[in-house]
From TrEMBL:
Source species: Peredibacter starrii
Protein name (database record): Lipoprotein
Length: 242
């Protein structure tokens, strides 16, 4: 099992050796006990049978569209418009994503977060040395690589997950799976955005979660939903105490 997860984490380093060294990024915290409960619950649930009525986009297109929408979402919060004007490798997907409405997000003041609630506030990973704006710049760098070359180191990690681990129950039921998927930007960004998202202001589109369906990481989606609910309850309780 350790070899399986290790392979997922390092595949990018050998899948595209001509690219530059990976830029600095962050590790987001999560609630290990909640994750374990969610994984057990999803593992016990009967598999759903979904019939595909339309041709599905390729993993490359799914990865790009998800990453680009996440880039636009964080950019809106930072009051930073996208300066990616041309994207030869994903021209249609970029235009389509540009036309979507992105969710609004907000960051809760770090000074008001208690120690026991920190695991529901992934934005605490950012600091003066590496800010959310820096993180947003890293996403832009990968998007530029994708637009020019059609692939990136992180895409190869995603493709490896789709190809070799999506159908392995042993992977999806291990706590280490969370660390593995959070090494892939579309998962880390989805987690960050959903935790920061202002409740009730955004109608979710299928494209936002298509990468979850491809990788069969339904436990990840369930965890984010539950963690977001607990975060919002924490914030509401704080407001009541004022």
């Amino acid at each position: 099992m350790k070899n399986m997860i290790l392979g997922l984490l390092v595949v990018g380093s050998v899948g595209c050796s001509h690219m530059k060294e990976a830029p600095k990024t962050v590790e987001f915290t999560y609630a290990a006990e909640l994750l374990q409960k969610v994984q057990l619950g999803v593992a016990r649930a009967p598999a759903s049978l979904e019939l595909e009525t339309e041709e599905q986009p390729s993993p490359r297109r799914v990865y790009f569209s998800a990453l680009y929408q996440q880039y636009l979402t964080l950019g809106q919060h930072l009051n930073k418009k996208s300066d990616i004007q041309f994207c030869p490798a994903f021209h249609h997907d970029k235009i389509q994503t540009d036309s979507t409405i992105v969710p609004k997000v907000t960051i809760y003041p770090a000074s008001q977060i208690d120690e026991e609630g920190k695991e529901f506030f992934p934005e605490l990973a950012f600091n003066k040395k590496f800010s959310l704006r820096d993180y947003h710049g890293v996403i832009k760098g990968e998007l530029e690589t994708l637009c020019e070359e059609g692939v990136s180191d992180n895409y190869f990690k995603f493709d490896n997950l789709v190809t070799h681990y999506a159908g392995k129950k042993s992977f999806h039921t291990k706590p280490e799976a969370m660390k593995s998927v959070l090494k892939i930007p579309v998962f880390a960004n989805f987690y960050l955005v959903k935790m920061l998202e202002i409740p009730g202001l955004h109608l979710e589109s299928p494209e936002e979660k298509r990468f979850i369906k491809l990788t069969q990481t339904y436990w990840f989606e369930k965890y984010v939903t539950e963690a977001s609910r607990m975060r919002n309850n924490f914030i509401k309780n704080k407001m009541v105490q004022r």
